[in-house]
């Protein structure tokens, strides 16, 4: 995700200036409805295959930031020193969050940050669990010159990712090199040593552009390609080269990029594979989808063989579209961050988000069903949203997605289902 205090106007730099006094985020005290409370709810989340068709189920979410202050509450907190314009210690973010939300435990178990999400994911039984990991995982490196914001998690805390049995960490974002190439190289090594696949960054360009291949339960594969766009704040200098580590950078405003993606997909795809293009693109705030972004997403489906466009970077969920039968998520919002207590965009309710559970027809990658489980960040963990929060998300996304021909409806268990 882009730093809320950087970039085009509308007060991003003042985001942290207000942090010390913006303690008015009132998080709902109730635990919310218990979604998918029994075994029957499994069909509500992912549906069941009928007529012998092979279905592939995914878990997708937006930005998962396990570094900085969230790292400080885990069992092996790293050095809290940061070099930001308005903060010198990651512990400052923890203090702000506690003033807003109350005490947050320390030395938490690896699964703490997942909160209510773990049970929902387990009930869904997805074939692939895919997150955009918004942090370096390193003790090494120096802050990237001029970057101003640094996220990192101590390598010993990688258990917070394996606790959720994540299959793929997409690293093509604008924070993975916050601690330079030394930090990126250690991030790659730590994640892979823990059995986690990565996409979108690598020790060289070939590795950064290669997909993560996840075996599905019936022998098919989910291929995840990761791309980071300059529109989300990914510096051009971060691009991987044949002899330098970095990110697989993609500019959706450049028509030539479509051919590159198509070539990557053709080189890796086998019959029966489902292809996910996970893209960090666009700004932090607002629901409007840029014309070149929408056009590029359509052409990924039409010409590049992409079955799911998994967009992220925005701090709140953005519209959903189904184009020629394929799912396009323009922005999944923040799944987990350490922004509690920092004001400025309360009207957009960035603490609210979704777990996305698409079910695809493996024969052609088309969308069969999409169920969304509403969530709320609170005390540095993922909680189920309350009834009021679910209603707000439903009304907001329906208003914004209408032009895209989609609508959400609420199910009996409190989850939402897409209609198109």
Structural descriptors:
single chain, Purple Acid Phosphatase, chain A, domain 2, 11 helices, globular, 6-stranded mixed sheet
Oligomer: single chain
| CATH-level-4 superfamily name | Metallo-dependent phosphatases
Q: Rough shape?
A: globular
Rg for CA atoms: 20 Å
Task: Classify the fold: give the CATH topology.
Answer: Purple Acid Phosphatase, chain A, domain 2
CATH architecture: 4-Layer Sandwich
What is the total tally of β strands? 20
User: How many individual domains?
Assistant: 1
As a percent range, the share of strand residues is 15-25%
Give the CATH class: Alpha Beta
The helical percent reads 10-25%
N-to-C CA distance? 28 Å
> How many individual helices?
11
Can you summarize the main beta sheet? 10 strands, mixed
Provide the fold topology:
Layout lengths: L13 H4 L23 H6 L8 E10 L4 H4 L18 H11 L15 H8 L3 E6 L2 E2 L14 E2 L5 H4 L5 E3 L9 H14 L3 E3 L1 E2 L2 H5 L2 E4 L5 E8 L17 E2 L8 H13 L5 E7 L10 H13 L4 E5 L7 E4 L2 E4 L4 E3 L15 E10 L5 E12 L2 E4 L2 H15 L5 E4 L5 E4 L1
Parallel strand pairs: 1-2, 1-15, 2-5, 3-4, 5-6, 9-11, 11-12, 12-14
Antiparallel strand pairs: 1-16, 7-10, 8-9, 13-14, 16-17, 17-18, 17-20, 19-20
